[in-house]
C-alpha cells in the first residue's frame, strides 16, 4: 500500500511538470504562427506513442491518475502535432549583410 501511494503521487505530480513544459510551447507556436524547427515526424511519433499508452492504460484498468494523465498528454501532443501540420515550417528571413562583408564587395 505504501509503495502504491508513492507511485500514484509520482504519476500525479508528473502531469503538472509536463504541462509546465508543453503549454508555453503551444502558446508560443500559436502566437508566432509557426513552429520553428519542430519536426513533423518526431511529433507524430510522440503523439502515436501517447495514443498507444492511453489505449493500454484504459485496456489494463490502470489507476485513474495514470489514465487521465495519458489522455491529457495525448491531447497536448495532438495540439503540437496539429500546429506542425497547420503552420508548417516557415523559411527564415534572409540575413542582412554584415558591414565587413559590404566592405569586401
UniProtKB/TrEMBL annotation:
<keyword id="KW-0813">Transport</keyword>
<protein>
    <recommendedName>
        <fullName>Mannose-P-dolichol utilization defect 1 protein homolog</fullName>
    </recommendedName>
</protein>
<keyword id="KW-0812">Transmembrane</keyword>
<keyword id="KW-1133">Transmembrane helix</keyword>
<comment type="similarity">
    <text>Belongs to the MPDU1 (TC 2.A.43.3) family.</text>
</comment>
<dbReference type="Pfam" id="PF04193">
    <property type="entry name" value="PQ-loop"/>
</dbReference>
<keyword id="KW-0472">Membrane</keyword>
<dbReference type="GO" id="GO:0016020">
    <property type="term" value="C:membrane"/>
</dbReference>
<keyword id="KW-0677">Repeat</keyword>
<dbReference type="InterPro" id="IPR006603">
    <property type="entry name" value="PQ-loop_rpt"/>
</dbReference>
<dbReference type="InterPro" id="IPR016817">
    <property type="entry name" value="MannP-dilichol_defect-1"/>
</dbReference>
Amino acid at each position: 500500500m505504501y509503495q502504491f501511494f508513492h507511485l500514484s503521487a509520482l504519476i500525479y505530480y508528473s502531469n503538472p511538470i509536463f504541462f509546465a513544459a508543453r503549454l508555453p510551447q503551444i502558446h508560443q507556436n500559436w502566437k508566432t504562427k509557426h513552429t520553428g524547427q519542430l519536426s513533423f515526424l518526431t511529433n507524430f511519433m510522440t503523439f502515436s506513442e501517447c495514443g498507444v499508452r492511453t489505449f493500454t492504460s484504459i485496456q489494463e484498468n490502470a489507476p485513474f491518475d495514470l489514465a487521465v494523465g495519458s489522455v491529457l498528454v495525448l491531447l497536448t501532443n495532438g495540439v503540437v502535432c496539429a500546429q506542425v501540420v497547420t503552420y508548417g515550417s516557415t523559411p527564415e528571413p534572409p540575413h542582412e549583410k554584415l558591414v565587413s562583408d559590404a566592405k569586401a564587395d
